[in-house]
Design brief:
The structure holds two protein chains of two kinds.
Chain A (H helix, E strand, L loop, with lengths): L6 E4 L4 H5 L12 E3 L6 H57 L2 H5 L2 H4 L12
Antiparallel strand pairs in A: 1-2
Chain B lengths: L1 H8 L8 H26 L1 H12 E6 L6 E4 L5 E15 L7 H12 L5 H5 L9 E7 L1 H10 L4 E10 L7 H4 L1 E2 L5 E2 L1 H5 L1 H5 L3 E6 L14 E3 L7 E6 H17 L4 E7 L6 E7 L19 H4 L8 H12 L8 E3 L2 E4 L2 E4 L8 E3 L1 H6 L3 H11 L6 H14 L27 H8 L9 H12 L4 E2 L4 E5 L6 E3 L4 E3 L5 H16 L12 E12 L6 E15 L5 E10 L7 H20 L5
Parallel strand pairs in B: 2-10
Antiparallel strand pairs in B: 1-8, 2-3, 3-4, 3-5, 6-7, 8-9, 10-18, 11-12, 11-23, 13-16, 14-15, 17-20, 18-19, 21-22, 22-23
Helix pairs in contact in B: 4-6, 10-19, 12-14, 12-18, 14-15
The chains are: A mainly alpha, B alpha+beta.
């Protein structure tokens, strides 16, 4: 098993540090950390698989999101079709209300009288 | 195998360890899988890709909305005559229905008596997957059913032609059959223009066939809706024409007749009606398919005495007669073995003018014109001249090309027809022997009275623009000029005016409007005897109306078949219908004295 804690390894610069020239030589307070976590080959594989799964999930999420637009679009199209049909029906009703038969049978038309005399061509 | 051998014998070291065997087996399987994948993905790629496409991709046809048909009135208002409405077909999948009673209860309450009972009875048949329960449901009914969300029920949207003005101009319009094809009239003639072009929608779909937005092969070609047509038919004139025709036929005790009103200055038809008619919304409920036929264009008949005006026009235009010419009017004349007599005998034994020929509708006078065309006798030269005018000037030998389906041809015998050409042509001068359609006669008549310009008769004014208010009008098409010389046209028009008010019927009085016309009564051949019958007649009246400038504003032609109100049907049955229509047109068009 590996530990999640990190170990303090060294506070003293190595001899190799002194061997270097320039500013490094004065950085005697440099420290070096080494992770105490030990990742074996199995864990490596698990991590890779998990990462792949994560990437796949991310891809699927985005894809589903795009796909869901299709449903949204379909709903909107259906609504549009319904509204267009409703509009057509209202236009038909409007035309029927303005048709000659409706006008002839209206109260206004019934109240009309025949003119007393008409100057015709015959 | 080797492993088993080792276990069973125990004295021989196996060739492969278990690990090696498993590894080998693993790689063997891997190779098989790789080979199989290679086969599927590379070799059979196309086949599987096609299968996948077929399963995942849905290709739908987007129906184009059929163009609507409009008419207008004198004020330029546009009114719809044929519209589209969305209706729904209710169907069920009995194999998927969970609760039949619930569905029955719903559809009975929503659809009512319109339910297809055979379909309802099949709801319990689990072997079926498609049963139609009702047709032509309204949107409200469809919404109620949809909102109930019952599994196993489905709705299919469809478009239906509706007619806000009912049966108005039914035979001009025609109808659309169940396949969506126009039949008869404007619907058939302009089927391509009205139909539009269907679109295509190809998308990846889910299992419910709902289109998804992803997919490289998505295709979306929108449908191009059909064009909206505006007819030259005037809604008010058409309505009045149908009304006066119905009343006139009733008065004449006749069962069938036709009327057509045309603008003589453009060739545009303002009204065209026939009786009996039908309801295009219920076109399948007629007793006989004959009512679909528009007799104005689809029925050739012997025009009778209205032909005399064309005979006189020919005589005047060729110069063989003048308005002042006279002929001695015998009651009867002999042409070969046929005796041709006048109906009006009261003016026999007098010299008559061409105007009086029209006034008294003298058959012998019409034959006299034919004789003048031949230099004083009925000969081939005279017949040829008359034939040339009928064919080349009046254009009566071929369909007019009016934009309505099923226009028929005419019958005009050639002048060198063997056996009886002299009698035949003598008869043709007063309208017996040739067969013409009403549209041919009125189109030629308009040319004869408008100064000699033959316009292409049409019922289409133009197309409605996208704004739904303006029209792209098509210009009147001049087919021929100088059908008659302009001065001859004016003389003929004046003769028709005088003949009407001084006419044989004596019933007309001149109130100052410039209205002229000519009646005609033709005997029909009795199908039982094969001979002309006095009982079976075709009465016609053709005339025009104009203002004080003597410019014809409208032309009207009326036909009444087999009238039984006494007298000659041209003047007794058809003329009253013309009078009523003409009076309406005077008021409607605002014709001045």
């Amino acid at each position: 098993m590996t530990s999640s804690r990190q170990q303090f390894v060294s506070t003293r610069p190595s001899a190799r540090a002194y061997a270097g020239a320039g500013n490094w030589g004065r950085n005697q307070n440099l420290v070096e950390y080494k992770s105490g976590v030990k990742i074996g080959p199995v864990m490596n594989m698990v991590v890779i698989v998990l990462l792949c799964a994560l990437m796949g999930l991310l891809y699927l999420t985005q894809l589903s999101k795009t796909g869901s637009y299709g449903y949204e679009l379909n709903d909107i199209n259906e609504r549009k079709t319904e509204l267009a049909a409703e509009q057509d029906n209202l236009k038909v009703e409007n035309a029927r209300l303005q048709s000659l038969n409706t006008i002839k049978n209206s109260e206004v038309a019934k109240a009309m009288t025949t003119p007393a005399s008409t100057d015709y061509a015959e | 195998m080797k492993l088993m051998t080792k276990q069973s014998t125990g004295d021989k070291k196996p060739r492969f360890t278990r690990y090696q065997a498993m590894t080998g087996l693993f790689f063997l399987l891997l190779i098989i899988i790789v080979v199989q994948l290679f086969h599927i993905q590379i070799i059979d790629h196309k086949m599987y890709a096609a299968k996948a496409d077929n399963m995942q991709t849905d290709k739908q046809t987007i129906n184009a909305a059929r163009g609507q048909i409009y008419v207008r009135d004198a004020d330029g208002n546009i009114a719809p005559l044929v519209m589209n409405r969305t209706v729904y077909t209710l169907f069920a999948d009995p194999s998927a229905i969970e609760d039949v009673d619930e569905i029955k209860e719903l559809i009975t309450s929503v659809v009512g008596d319109s339910l297809i009972q055979d379909g309802v009875a099949q709801l319990t048949d689990k072997d079926r997957q498609y049963v139609v329960l009702a047709k032509q449901l309204s949107q409200e009914q469809a919404t109620t059913i949809k909102d109930a969300n019952l599994y196993g029920l489905g709705l299919q949207a469809d478009t239906q032609r509706v007619y806000p003005e009912g049966t108005l101009a039914a035979q001009v319009l025609g109808f659309v059959n169940n396949d969506g094809d126009g039949q008869y009239g404007v619907e058939q003639y302009y089927n391509d223009k009205l139909s539009g072009t269907p679109g295509v929608l190809q998308t990846i779909t889910d299992v419910r066939k709902i289109p998804l937005t992803i997919g490289a092969k998505d295709i979306s070609i929108p449908a191009q809706d059909g064009e909206d047509i505006v007819l030259s038919i005037d809604r008010n004139v058409q309505s009045q024409a149908e009304q006066v025709l119905a009343e006139g036929l009733q008065n004449a005790k006749a069962t069938s007749g036709s009327i057509v009103v045309m603008d003589p200055q453009t060739g545009r038809v303002l009204a065209m009606a026939n009786l009996p008619s039908y309801d295009p919304a219920n076109y399948g409920e007629v007793e006989s398919a004959a009512v679909y036929q528009n007799n104005v264009i689809s029925n050739a008949y012997e025009p009778g005495s209205v032909m005399k005006l064309f005979t006189v026009g020919t005589g005047l235009d060729t110069g063989v007669i003048t308005p002042e010419s006279t002929f001695y009017n015998n009651s009867c004349i002999q042409v070969d073995d046929a005796e041709i007599c006048n109906v009006t005998r009261s003016v026999s034994g007098q010299n008559m003018t061409p105007m009086q020929l029209l006034e008294y509708s003298l058959n012998t006078g019409a034959v006299w014109v034919l004789e003048q065309l031949g230099g004083g006798q009925i000969n081939l030269a005279g017949r040829q001249k008359l034939y040339d005018y009928l064919v080349n000037n009046y254009r009566m030998n071929a369909p007019t090309g009016i934009d309505l389906a099923n226009e028929v041809d005419s019958v005009i015998y050639k002048p060198d027809t063997p056996n009886g050409a002299r009698v035949l042509y003598a008869n043709m001068t007063f309208g017996q022997g040739e067969q013409l359609t009403m549209i041919q006669v009125i189109s030629a008549f308009c040319a004869a009275i408008n100064g000699g310009v033959y316009y292409q008769p049409t019922v289409m004014l133009g197309t409605l623009n996208e704004d739904g208010a303006s029209i792209t009008e098509q210009e009147p098409k001049v087919v021929a000029e100088n059908v008659l010389k302009p001065d001859v046209s004016a003389e003929l028009k004046e003769m028709l005016y005088q003949a009407r008010y001084l006419g044989a019927s004596g019933s007309s009085k001149d109130n100052g409007y410039y209205v002229g016309g000519k009646s005609g009564t033709a005997q029909k051949v009795d199908p039982n005897t094969g001979a002309y019958s006095d009982e079976l007649t075709t009465g016609t009246y053709i005339g025009f109306g104009g203002d004080k400038t003597k410019t014809p504003k409208y032309a009207i032609m009326v036909r009444v078949d087999d009238a039984h109100n006494g007298g000659y049907s041209g003047s007794a049955a058809a003329q009253p219908i013309f009078d009523s229509m003409s009076n309406f047109m005077i008021q409607y068009e605002g014709v001045s004295k």
